Amino acid sequence: MGTNREKMINGEPYLSMDPELEDDRQRAQRLMIRYNASEPGDYEGMHALLKDFVAEIGENTVLLPRLQIEYGYNTRIGSNSFMNYDGIILDCGPVTIGDNVMMGPRVQLLTALHPIEDHEARIAGWETTAPIVIGDRVWFGGGVIVCPGVTVGDNTVVGAGSVVTRDLPDHVLAVGNPARIVRKI
Length: 185
Hints:
By secondary structure, the protein is α/β, with parallel strands linked by helices. The chain is 21% helix and 28% strand.
């Protein structure tokens, strides 16, 4: 059966307003307040805060404030990656970001799924999740939104303002809403 946290992590239906999950979100919010109040340029201090908060973070990775991560324990970020201002990682499901990933301002990585046809379940707070996987050497322009269950392949570039609703293979340029492959790179 499992707790709502275990169900959430495994992509099973769970109640999002469970007291344990609420405690987890509040803990994350408190840490995000500290993180976002870091002295400008204190990348070592910011990295240390993230190292104790997210499941994994590689060396030389910088995520600029104002950063919002929902839980932390479902986020893994490789080395030498960068997220510009106002990034959002809703990691109720697993989020994996590779090495040397560059993300423009206001990128959103969203793993939550809500019931579409079962209105009562949605009102009651039932959700599921689907993981996001971002390969190595990916570049997202500003304002990119990555939807639940999406995998973005290595060396792929996604243009500013795009909404990625389905998997993108390695070595492509994708743009638009929904993001469509324009060409191989």
